[in-house]
Amino acid sequence: MKMNQKPVFEVPAKTVLNLNSGFVHKKLCDGLTFTAGTSCCYSCSYCYVEDAVAKTSHFQDVLAVNPGVRFGDIVMRRKNAVELLRKQLTYKKNGKPKFRNPNDNRVVYASPLVDVAANITLADETIDMCSEALELTNWQIRLLSKSTLLPRIASKIAERNESWKQRVIFGVSTGTLDDRLARVIEKGTPLVSKRIESLHWLQDHGFRTFGMVCPSLPQVDGAYSAFARRMSEVLRTDRMEAVWAEALNARGESFEQTHAALVEHGFQETADEFKRVTTDKAAWEKYSRDLFEAHADVYRGQMATDSAGGPKLRFLQYVTKATRAEYWTEQVPSGAVLL
Predict the structure, then answer these.
(1) What is the pTM of this model?
(2) Are 191 and 182 spatial neighbours (Cβ–Cβ below 8 Å)?
(3) Shortest CA distance to 100 belongs to which of 134, 62, 77, 130?
(4) For 72-124, how does the pLDDT look when each residue is reduced to its tens digit (9 = 90+)?
(5) Secondary element (H or E) of residue 287
(6) Within 10 A of 272 (CB to CB), how many other CB atoms are there?
C-alpha cells in the first residue's frame, strides 16, 4: 500500500493521545495532543520529526524488517488510531467518558508529528478522531495542515453536529507565498496558493482559524517588513484568533537538506543568504530578530481572541541564556514565545 507515493507501514501503538505534551510551551494547546501517525506523507526539507522520533520503537521495528529504509521515504500510521483514542477517552470498566467536566475546555493540538489531512484517507481519519474527542469531552481542537482538505474536515464535522463547529480551530501552514519556492522545500504538498484558497473558504464560512507563518526563510533583500505585511494581508489575519510565526530552526540534517534543495532548483540567492545566516551565529540572531520585529510591527496592540489570550502574535524563538537576557525577554509583551 502507498500514500502520496510513499510505502505505508502500520505500527502497533498503545496511545495516540498525549495528556502532557511539550507543545503547551508553544501555546498551541493546553498540553494535549493527538496523532494518528509517526511519519508524514509529505517530505519537507526542514522537518524536525525524524530527529525527534527516528530512534523510537515505531521506526526501529520497521527498520528491523526493512533494513536501509529511510525515515523520510515512508509513512508510518498507528494501527486502530480512532479506536485507541476512544479507549483513552473512556473508562475501561464501563465505557463512560473520563473527561466530561463541562468546565474542561482545554485545547488539544493535532498533530505534533504528521499532517492531519495529507490525503482524503487521512482527512477522514482526522474527522473520526475529532468526532470522538468532541463527543466524549468538552475540549477544543486545533488542527494544522499544509493540505487543501481542511474544508472537507470542517464541513463533515459541522454536518455531524452543528455545535461542534465552534470547538475546532483550523490553521494552514506556510512560510512563503511563492508557489515555486514552497515546492522546493515542501515536497508533495499542495500549492501555497491553493492552501490559501482553502483558508479563505474556512474564514468565509464562519470557521475559527489561526495563522502559522513558518518556517520563514531569510529574506534576500532584508525586506522583512514587506514580507510580514504581505503575509498578514494574504492570509487575512484580521479574521484569525492568533498568529504563530517562526524562523527556521536547526534539527538533524534539516539545514543541509534545505540548502541543497534551494541550490538544486535554482534559488541561488536565497541559498546563499540561507547559508550565510546558518553558519554565523550573529547573522542568525539578527535574522531572527529582524523577522520577529517585522511581525511585531504588524500585530502591535492586537490581542488574541482564543482561550489563551495575550498578544495576537506568538513568535516561537529558541533562545540561549545570553540571548534571552540581552534581548528576547523584553519582547515577550510583543508576542515572543521563548523556548
Answers:
(1) 0.96
(2) yes
(3) 134
(4) 899 999 999 999 999 999 999 999 999 999 999 999 999 999 999 999 999 99
(5) helix 281-299
(6) 14
